[in-house]
Specification:
- The chain is 62% helix and 0% strand.
- By secondary structure, it is mostly helical.
- It folds into two domains: 56 residues; 43 residues, no CATH class.
- Helix 1 crosses helix 2.
- The two termini are 32 Å apart.
- 1% of the residues are buried.
Length: 106
């Protein structure tokens, strides 16, 4: 049975937003754990990526590559849209402008 995401009687977009907020909060906690442990910079990113990989491997085992690709595309597009709206999208393509199709480097 899939997790119940609030608002139960609301639009699906609101559930997507709830999940994004919860996921970013969870990742933020992993980052904070590494900072508290005395790590910094790119080392934090590497350590958090390793931790996420070990956690999410169970999720991966029950999903096809196509399903994972759809999730990746959604999260990438959402990230770029948020970054563009907030004015920091240049961080995703610092050495070049956006691609003709609007794509960025994540």
């Amino acid at each position: 049975m899939p997790p119940i995401v609030e608002p139960i009687e609301g639009p699906e977009l609101d559930r997507v937003i709830t999940v994004l907020l919860n996921a970013t909060g969870a990742v933020h906690q992993l980052v904070e754990d590494e900072v508290t442990a005395g790590h910094f910079g790119a080392d934090i990113v590497d350590r958090v990526a390793d931790r996420l990989r070990s956690i999410l491997v169970l999720f991966e085992e029950h999903r096809s590559d196509e399903e994972l690709a759809e999730i990746t595309e959604f999260l990438a597009i959402a990230t770029l849209m948020i970054a563009e709206h907030c004015g920091f999208d240049a961080v995703f393509h610092p050495d070049r402008g956006p691609q003709p199709d609007g794509g960025g480097l994540l």
